[in-house]
């Protein structure tokens, strides 16, 4: 049985994963710039290889984070639908969940383009 408390937890989970995804995207940008700078300067090949490994690891985290966000979004939608079917259609938790769902879907649309 879905409760407002469960809805709040699922909403917070989605928000946390969105924040994590954005953080990984920024990290990839930062590490890519650092790698390009190292190549430009002609740094030691070993250091450059290590930096490329760091960049590759950061890039691998983005698809994983997206999968977790997709799963969390599906659970949040299910919880919200269950609450709405039990005649709880108003309240700050429900509004927050709705806006979080819209934000996540918009994020997916932007990255799919």
UniProtKB/TrEMBL annotation:
One of its GO terms (biological process) is post-chaperonin tubulin folding pathway. It comes from the Eukaryota. Keywords: Chaperone, Coiled coil, Cytoplasm, Cytoskeleton, Microtubule. It holds the Pfam family TBCA. Its main location: cytoplasm. Residues 14-41 form a coiled coil. SUPFAM superfamilies: Tubulin chaperone cofactor A (SSF46988). The keyword Secreted does not apply. One of its GO terms (cellular component) is cytosol. InterPro entries: TBCA (IPR004226), TBCA_sf (IPR036126). One of its GO terms (molecular function) is beta-tubulin binding. It is found in: Cytoplasm, Cytoskeleton. Belongs to the TBCA family. Supercomplex made of cofactors A to E. Cofactors A and D function by capturing and stabilizing tubulin in a quasi-native conformation. Cofactor E binds to the cofactor D-tubulin complex; interaction with cofactor C then causes the release of tubulin polypeptides that are committed to the native state. This is Tubulin-specific chaperone A. It comes from Actinidia rufa.
């Amino acid at each position: 049985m879905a409760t407002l408390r469960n809805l709040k937890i699922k909403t917070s989970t989605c928000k946390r994963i969105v924040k994590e995804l954005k953080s990984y995207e920024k990290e990839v940008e930062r590490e890519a710039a650092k790698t390009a700078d190292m190549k430009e300067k002609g740094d030691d090949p070993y250091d450059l290889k290590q930096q490329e490994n760091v960049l590759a690891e950061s890039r691998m985290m983005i698809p994983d984070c997206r999968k977790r966000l997709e799963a969390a979004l599906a659970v949040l939608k299910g919880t919200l639908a269950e609450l709405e079917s039990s005649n709880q259609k108003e309240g700050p938790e429900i509004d927050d969940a709705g806006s979080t769902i819209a934000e996540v879907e918009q994020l997916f649309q932007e990255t799919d383009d």
